[in-house]
Amino acid sequence: MKRVVVFGAGLVVRAHVRYLLDHGFHVTVASRTVSKAEDILDGHPHGTPMAYDITEEPERLEAIIADHDLAVSLLPWQFHAQVARACLDTGTNMVTTSYVKDDMAALDEEARSKGVILLNEIGVDPGIDHMTAMKVIHRVQAEGGEITTFQSYCGGLPAPEANDNPYGYKFSWSPRGVLLAGLNNARYRRDARVEEVPGQELFDHVWPASVVIEGEETVLEGYPNRDSMPYTETYGIDPRDVMFRGTLRFPGWCAAMKQVARLGWLRTDEIEGLEGRSYADLTARLAGATETSNLKAKVAAHLGIPADGPELAKMEWLGLLGDDPLPGPKAPVDILTARMLEKMSYSEGERDMLVLQHTFVAEFPDRVEHITSTMIDFGIPGGDSSMNRTVGLPAAVGARFILEGRFSQPGVIVPVMPEFYEPALEELERLGIQFSEETEVVGRT
After folding, report:
1. Which residues contact 127 (CB under 8 A, 6 or more apart)?
2. What number of H helices and E strands is found in the chain?
3. pLDDT digit string (tens) for 275-297?
4. Does residue 125 carry a catalytic annotation?
5. Where in the chain is the domain with CATH 3.40.50.720?
6. Is the pLDDT of residue 173 over 80?
7. Are strands 47-51 and 26-31 parallel, antiparallel or unpaired?
8. 28 φ, ψ (degrees, to nearest 5)
9. Three-state DSSP class for 6?
10. How far apart are CA 206 and CA 345, in angstroms?
């Protein structure tokens, strides 16, 4: 029986682990909180919970991996290269859902020479987005067409009936990661011009995005997701008009988070002297105020926004202007994470929703097509969230294909080759993760 070790026991692990167990693999779940691993495995005879903290016992990592046929890293992204290093030293294949960072990319040549597969970006975004985009791109190219516009949006959101708080958002994956993504620099091409966006201006670049959700047209807002331009090389296209990858949220999120970030609530440095203080005390401190009286007006003046506007109303709803005592952390982003988890988590039986939509303009020798490819997936009340399934299952399928010898290309790779994505998308469709595609001829050439 082939053995897999999964590092991490967070919000996207359960469906991943169950798929591997259901397909006859032994799965070790290694987590610093062993009770989480035990809960995920639920006593399965081919599952082993393991207490392991990579920050406390890095010397154990190589031995753990050597005892398995494949390693899956669902840890925070900064640990992936460390896991990959141990995989290269033991000749073990690896799967992760995260973006390829420079330290991971630097391992490509060694991985190729050692015949080790380091499969990255095999979640939903990145992951399913790559595979479904490449399915359309390769079809267009095979028919002699050229992609002149590529736009892709993805967002994990509350289902419409669960969208009941002022931010229009609830957490289905790493809350800290969601918040810190609001500080990312971005780059994209729009109207045939490349735009460079510093992190502090990210939420100024917002466009409406219309999708049909359960039969009703819904207008969301989208903003840039990191650097879109390297994907011209990854996808083998160079659209002259638009090359854009973005994140979707319900309207109002960007304006609200822009002010939260400007105020300093996304700071990652620790602030001393917060013991016994309230949220209002910290907000006043971030706004440069010496005390909390008339705090809303002081924050409004500091930010240069109306005191009676929606952005401050959202902060007030969250309790950032209130007298509740601060939790343990000292970094503002960690304090904010704790507060948002308290106020913006899914209740029992609520559904989350994953919306992923690509739009293309493709020019052929005789016509111009507008192509839309859309996935709208919902969580299962009382079961797995959509985020759990759409992140965890693609990675599990990738792990299965490697373990069964169905995919063997070594190196630091992402899932853009047809020999991988075609059977992977078929398997995901069997699991209920499906896309619809619409094509309209919009001109003749």
Report:
1. 97, 121, 391, 394, 395, 415
2. 16, 16
3. 999 999 999 999 999 999 999 99
4. yes
5. 3-119
6. no
7. parallel
8. -100, 125
9. strand
10. 25
CATH T-level assignment (fold) for domain 256-343: Domain 3, Saccharopine reductase (1.10.1870)
With vertex at residue 260, the alpha carbon angle to CA 254 and CA 261, rounded to the nearest 5 degrees, is: 85
Domain span(s) for CATH 3.30.360.10 in the chain = 128-251+348-383+435-443
* CATH architecture of the domain with residue range 128-251+348-383+435-443: 2-Layer Sandwich (3.30)
User: Is residue 174 pLDDT above 80, yes or no?
Assistant: no
Amino acid at 41: L
Find the catalytic residue in 125, 281, 334, 384.
125
Exposure string of 215-252, with b = 16+ CB inside 10 Å and e = fewer, is eeebebbbbbbbbbbebeeebebebebbbbbbbbbbeb
32 alpha-carbon distance from chain centroid: 22
Nearest Cα to Cα of residue 111 among 139, 138, 87? 87
Question: Tokens standing for 433?
Answer: 């993760």
Round the average pLDDT of the chain to a whole number and report it. 96
Helix axes 310-318, 332-343, angle to 10 degrees: 80
Q: What is the mean pLDDT of residues 126-146?
A: 97
- Tell me the backbone φ, ψ of residue 394, rounded to 5 degrees: -60, -40
**Local structure of 168: helix, strand or coil:** coil
- Residues with Cβ within 8 Å of 383's Cβ and at least 6 positions away in sequence, in order, are none
- Token couple for 33: 């909180």
249 contacts 355 by C-beta, under 8 angstroms: no
